[in-house]
From TrEMBL:
It comes from the Bacteria. SUPFAM superfamilies: Aldolase (SSF51569). Keywords: Lyase. The lineage of its organism: Bacteria, Bacillati, Actinomycetota, Actinomycetes, Kitasatosporales. This is Dihydrodipicolinate synthase family protein. Belongs to the DapA family. The keyword Lyase applies.
């Protein structure tokens, strides 16, 4: 199969939409649609429903299916959709097949949640999912620094539809080595740690980056993308400096408030409730005003 259009779609800002809740704690479908339209109207051309910013692990299986369906209905042909799947192999395969049924072109496979992950087991896990949906592009989400480039290369040899890697290990030198050991041109390398890491990862081989901040300010993320594509690292770092305090809040305490900060910013803009599910929690009062002040001067 020709995966060129899917590969091109990954070399972009890959937005991870939040999942808004209503006063009773259920997924607020109309608000989700509105937030997604805002991303699309803002120029976003790749979205990942059921990503970590969408609270993948806090959603039920039924809710994840609903989010997938809402995304496909609202997106149409306006953007590429890579649906987040994961958990055990059977659950991930079921979700991937559902994504295929509703028209998604790709799936992103969350890092296996297991205390004992071997190189061979990592390959087998992703291979089982990729072989179940050969029509779809498959993108492993790699957060484990112990997975080597050779393992990714073996996966790519076995499964031609594994077309990209979302690399989220906070080590640019490690990323550069892994990407080259796996095949720099074989896969589309997506910087999975968003805007703060995008310039350094881009310099050594990434051609796209994920973003949760894009929910709040699509133009800011797309400005960074434009600068990186033009080789304007000074321009990219101006955006970096602008968003650093916001992203630092998200990254604090091992990213405990990663999604909370994004939802707080959206709440400050009147776009959705700040509610978030355990084991995450809403921001305490002192930080709410800080987040509102940070985004006030952005081009929203």
């Amino acid at each position: 199969m020709d995966h060129s259009p899917l590969r091109a779609a990954l070399a972009d800002v890959v937005a991870i939409p939040v999942t808004p809740y209503d006063a009773e704690g259920a997924v607020e479908q109309d608000t989700y649609r509105a937030l997604l339209r805002r991303l699309l109207d803002g120029g976003v051309r790749a979205v990942t429903p059921n990503g970590n910013t969408g609270e993948f692990y806090a959603l039920t299986l039924a809710e994840r299916r609903v989010v997938t369906e809402l995304t496909m209905e609202e997106t149409g042909d306006r953007a590429a959709v890579l649906v987040g799947v994961g958990h055990d192999v059977a659950t991930a395969v079921e979700a991937a097949r559902h994504a295929r049924e509703v028209g998604a072109g790709m799936v992103m496979v969350h890092q296996p949640v297991h205390p004992y992950v071997s190189q061979d087991g990592w390959v087998d896990y992703h291979r089982a999912i990729a072989e179940a949906v050969p029509e779809l592009g498959v993108v492993p989400y790699l957060r484990n620094p112990l997975i080597e480039g050779s393992a990714i290369a073996r996966l790519g040899e076995a499964c031609p539809n594994v077309i990209g890697v979302k690399y989220a290990v906070p080590d640019a030198a490690r990323f550069a080595a892994v990407a080259r050991d796996a095949g720099l041109d074989r896969f589309v390398w997506v910087a999975g740690l968003a805007e703060l890491y995008a310039p350094s990862y881009w310099a050594v081989g990434a051609t796209g980056f994920t973003s949760g901040l894009v929910n709040v300010a699509p133009k800011v993320s797309l400005d960074m993308l434009g600068a990186l594509r033009a080789g304007d690292y000074a321009g990219a770092m101006k955006v970096w400096e602008q968003i650093r305090p916001f992203e630092d809040l998200r990254a604090a305490h091992q990213s405990a408030n990663n999604v909370s900060v994004v939802k707080e910013a959206l709440a400050a803009l009147g776009l959705c409730r700040r509610d978030i599910r355990p084991p995450s929690s809403a921001l305490p009062e002192p930080q709410r005003a800080e987040v509102a002040a940070l985004v006030q001067g952005w081009a929203i």
